[in-house]
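This entry is set out below.
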Amino acid sequence: MDRKSIKSKAFSIANNMGAWLLIIVIIVLMAFVNDKFLTVSNIINVLRQVCVVAICALGVSFVVLGGEIDLSSGMAATFAGCNAALLITRLGVPLVPAILLAVLLGAVVGTMSGCIVTFWKIPSFIGTLGVQYIIQGLILITTNSMPVTGLPEGFLFLGRGYVANIIPVPVIIMLVFFAIGTFLLKYTTFGRSVIAVGENAEAAALSGLKVVQTKVLMFTICGFCSACAGIVMTARLSSGQPSSGSDMALQALAAVYIGGTFKGSMLNTLAGALAWGFVNNGLNLLGVNAYWQKIVLGAVIVVAVLFDSIRAKISTAK
């Protein structure tokens, strides 16, 4: 095998692996730098940390694949978590109905964003930014800017519990969500419609696809996933924190872009979330200042998207 074919083979492998290759590189590097990184307890800790962002990113993936963007997912998560906490602690609503109502409200937020973007023809960046501020205001009003505490153990189990004293409950929830999300994207008409609309909405409409319904539904799913992520986040924090999801929308988008979800795989989103989590964890273990961590994480996003763009250009050239 000559040098050119070896390079082509290496590029093909790297291109197919995407963010999974980045994860391997991070793990290998950190294993040499810090002996605590590859311990079972630390790996489980990373998985627990990325669950909330990963579930939220799963919903955001549908929106991004559909050619739009959602900046309200973080506040939708906080809204659902705080509402569930309020329903349980202040109104005495039973656990399951409270969670279902909170998740339903999250889906309504997503539907509202979808209607603003599709029916009012407002660019999704601006429309969802406006929704974000509206939801943030409602959160501050309903909670009076104070944490909502006193949640029952059954609720906290969703964010802090373990199965067989080994597997964190949030990890199981995350894996179930990604299994369902992968099925929806790959094996349903809706999933194929999302990709078709994202590639060319006009062509999708001419081919008979219901573009408006598809876009509204993908925003609804995003709101639903964000709300579920918010429930897990609130359970993990043991309280409804009004400011808990302030960065989540950007972190979810980062996971989508780092993972290169544009290739049409939800597993890429999971890889992006894990890469984000491993980098964050590695910086913490190395004792890097929190301010510098933001710089490094920002650089990781830029470099990941840059490499994805380069890979796309090379693939197109071939």
